[in-house]
Amino acid sequence: MIMPSAESLSSRHLIGIEGLSPAEIGLLLDLSDRYVDFNRSANKKGDALRGRTIINVFFENSTRTRTSFELAGKRLGADVINISPEVSSVRKGETLLDTALTLDAMHADLLVVRHPESGAVGLISQKVRCSVVNGGDGAHEHPTQALLDALAIRRRKGKLSGLIVAICGDILHSRVARSNMILLRTMGAEVRLVAPRTLLPAEVERYGVTVHSNLSEGLKDADIVMMLRLQQERMRGSFVPSTTEYFRFFGLDSQKLAMAKPDALIMHPGPMNRGVEIDSDVADDINRSLIQEQVEMGVAVRMACLDLLTRDLTGNEGPAE
Amino acid sequence: MKRMFFQNARVLDPASNLDVVGGLLVENGKIADLGPNLRDPPPDAEVLDCKGLCLSPGLVDIRVHLCEPGEEHKETIDGLSASAAKGGITTLVGLPNTEPPIDDAAVVEFVARRAREVRGVKIFVYGAATKGFDGKRLTEMGLLKEAGARAFTDGNIAIADAMMMRRVLSYASGFDALVIQHPEEPTLTASAVATEGEFATRLGLSAAPAAAEVMMVERDIRLVEMTGARYHAAHISTAAAVDKIAEAKSRGLNVSADTAPAYFALNETEILQYRTFSKLSPPLRSEDDRRSIVEALKAGTIDVIASDHWPQDQESKRLPFAQANPGAVGVETLLPVCLELVHKGEIELLTLLGKLTINPAKLLGLSGGSLKKGGPADIVVFDIDRPFKVDSDKLNSKSKNSAFDGRPVQGMVMVTMVDGRIVYDGRITE
Predict the structure, then answer these.
(1) Which residues 239-258 in chain A show a CB within 8 A of chain B?
(2) Among the partner residues B130, B138, B164, nearest to A240 by beta-carbon distance
């Protein structure tokens, strides 16, 4: 597919993959490619964001994503601060916005926000002058994860269009699945979901994906097998009977993987539950597993996002409304 | 194994709508041949002259309380098998309410092993839908199904919580597994021992409205619509529930239902002397409801008749009505009580037999239930006209709690065969 080229993003926020054009996704991935090379060089210090202030506001625990954003900002020369507001005190919408407005008033240029409630990051973006990047909101979106996944796939397979991607596991609670479905469908990949029916949201077929209850069937001829974590901390009540049964029917092992294409690659957004959704033999197979590469791509993708989003910012003058 | 030839039988096969006088040849545990042209026995075969008696597929009874493991003082697998064989049953499916419950693959395997040892009728089980029937935690349906569980149910406990029932249906549908509900709104039936109405009032018994049944059925149908699951309502006993099931079927939902003989052969007047053998779950209903169950069987809304066999020892029944355990034994009276509908001209013989053979077999994916070449030789020979009085003391079952004791019936099982083995022989030596 020939993409019309884009030179910048149409919004100063990145709240979701939803709304991004194929050209914008292409632009982000192309720039990310350059940052992959940059990160592999000895001198990893740039100055594209010199003088900028980035605040990582994580209302939900994270090591991987927060570190990745922090490294991305620092490698571009920005000043980066991390704050983790007490989760219990910000459940009320007002306090959430107060926190955001306070940071905005300190002339932050960009906020990276993760929040356990869907829509919370979008809500902040409507009230502040700075740019806002969604680091994951509830079960809504996790756009930089989908971009880094796309980058990892594109670098190995040379394309996204026409690939068969199976996304397996806890779709219901997953923002990663939602962002990935949108991105992959936007870029012309075929997407299959494989999950116990209790972990599939209603009418998920409307994303243009097919749904399977049998892992071997869903993996047939797949190019990419994307495993998701069973998010037991988000489950109220019984969605699956046991991790034993889950692994038996929905866990990826070499036998089920044999249904996929011989050169199929395995992905996982982390953190992994070995023996629950993925067998260690498969997760650690250096010829098949993209899991470590995903982490590397994460920094590059976040650098590209920060870079593009702050390019046209003139600075945040005067107090916020 | 030697060949066996059933000669001069009225061969009845609901699956193929066959009702002819003819023969049937059994070879290596399978049906080798059958039909009206099969008159003379092959030279080497043992001949069983049926003298015009009915020969049909063995009955498939899909609702039986096993009692073993856990309540062997009420019934054992041996006793159950002997009792079922005498009733013309060749395959039965046990509920998971044993002790320990069948919510773990190991218990499925235990029952399968016991059935193999006994080598009588074929015995399968259901798996529990929730662990320990707690209505909160899903069971390992995938593993249970692999071990042999035929469907999922919490036995005589309704899966009450709507969210949980939704998850049970939804999770089961991923494994293409059937969910069987005991349809009863438990907050209405909590302490009830009878159906609400004049009789219960006069007896001073705590009672629940008959509508408790349709309330659960109606809710479940909405959840079935939401999840696309396969749903079966057990022992349907009220007109209102029948209507809802008929409506769901007409909308193309994957819904089926069974009833037990008590609900078309008895009504609530049975409990007038505080007769605890007539204390059932669900409780006996009004005459209008009983009548509607007969009509639903005719109309095909109710697909299956199952015995709902539930042995109770004397200690569990010789009690004040409210304190007695519910349930009645039923495998040995299943066929004659069902045949009353035929003798009264309510229903065609083949239609009735269909509800006892091919329909339940199809519902649960069981191999018997029909007479076809190459199929298992699971067969019952019965004398449709022979009258007798139900005598609970003569039942093979360890427990004698029949709700039909003393009832004059017509239709006696003569021979029951499972995989070519005769497991019951009631022919009088002349």
Answers:
(1) 239-242, 244-245, 248-249
(2) B138
Nearest CA in chain B to A241: B138
| Closest-CA residue of chain B to A249 | B142
Q: Give the pLDDT mean for B224-247.
A: 98
CA distance B18 to chain A (A): 40
Q: Give the pLDDT confidence score for residue A231 in this predicted structure.
A: 84
Of B130, B137, B170, the CB nearest to A197: B170
Select the residue of A213, A238, A242 nearest B167 (Cβ to Cβ). A238
Catalytic residues of B: 308
Copy the structure tokens of residue A317.
């003058």
Q: How far is C-alpha A154 from the chain's CA centre?
A: 15
According to DSSP, the residues that pair with A265 across neighbouring strands are: A224
Structure tokens at B138: 């899903």
Query: Using CA atoms, how far apart are residues A33 and B66, in angstroms rounded to an integer?
Result: 66
Name the residue in chain A with its Cα closest to that of B143: A245
| Residue A88 banded pLDDT, cuts 50, 70, 90 | low
Q: Provide the shortest C-alpha distance from residue A203 to chain B (in Å).
A: 11
Q: What is the pLDDT of residue A1?
A: 47
Which residues, 6+ apart, have CB-to-CB distance to B189 below 8 Å? B208, B212
Q: pLDDT by residue (tens digit) across A14-60? A: 999 999 999 999 999 999 999 999 999 999 999 999 999 999 999 99
Check the CA dihedral A235-A237-A243-A249 and report its sign: negative
pLDDT at B430: 38
Residue A280, number of CB atoms within 10 A of its CB: 11
To test the contact with chain A by mutation, choose from B108, B134, B143, B223 the residue with the greatest count of A C-beta atoms within 10 A, namely B143
> Mind listing the pLDDT tens digit for each residue in B370-388?
999 999 999 999 999 999 9
CA separation for the pair A3, A37 (Å, rounded): 23
Residue of A170, A172, A194, A197 to mutate, interface with B, max B Cβ within 10 Å: A197
What SS3 string covers chain B? CCCEEEEEEEEEEHHHCEEEEEEEEEECCEEEEEECCCCCCCCCCEEEECCCCEEEECEEEEEECCCCCCCCCCCCHHHHHHHHHHCCEEEEEECCCCCCCCCCHHHHHHHHHHHHHHCCCEEEECECCEHHHCCCCECCHHHHHHHCCCCEECCCCCCCCHHHHHHHHHHHHHCCCEEEECCCCHHHHCCCCEECCHHHHHHCCCEECCHHHHHHHHHHHHHHHHHCCEEEECCCCCHHHHHHHHHHHHCCCCEEEEECHHHHHCCHHHHCCCCHHHCCCCCCCCHHHHHHHHHHHHHCCCCEECCCECCCCHHHHCCCHHHCCCCEECCCCHHHHHHHHHHCCCCCHHHHHHHHCHHHHHHHCCCCCCCCCCCECCEEEEEEEEEEECCHHHCCCCCCCECCCCCEEEEEEEEEEECCEEEEECCCCC
Residue in B163, B171, B227 nearest the CB of A196? B171
Contact present, B31 and B18 (Cβ < 8 Å): no
Report the alpha-carbon distance of residue A101 to residue B145 in Å, rounded.
56
Q: Give the best residue of B102, B138, B154, B163 to mutate against chain A (max A CB count within 10 A).
A: B138
pTM over 0.95: no
Give A197's contacts in chain B (Cβ within 8 Å): 170-171, 173-174, 227
Amino acid identity at B302 = I
ipTM: 0.85
Q: How far is CA B348 from the centre of its chain?
A: 19
Minimal-distance CA residue of chain A relative to B172: A197
Q: Which residues of B touch A (CB under 8 A)?
A: 130-131, 136-143, 163-164, 167, 170-171, 173-175, 227
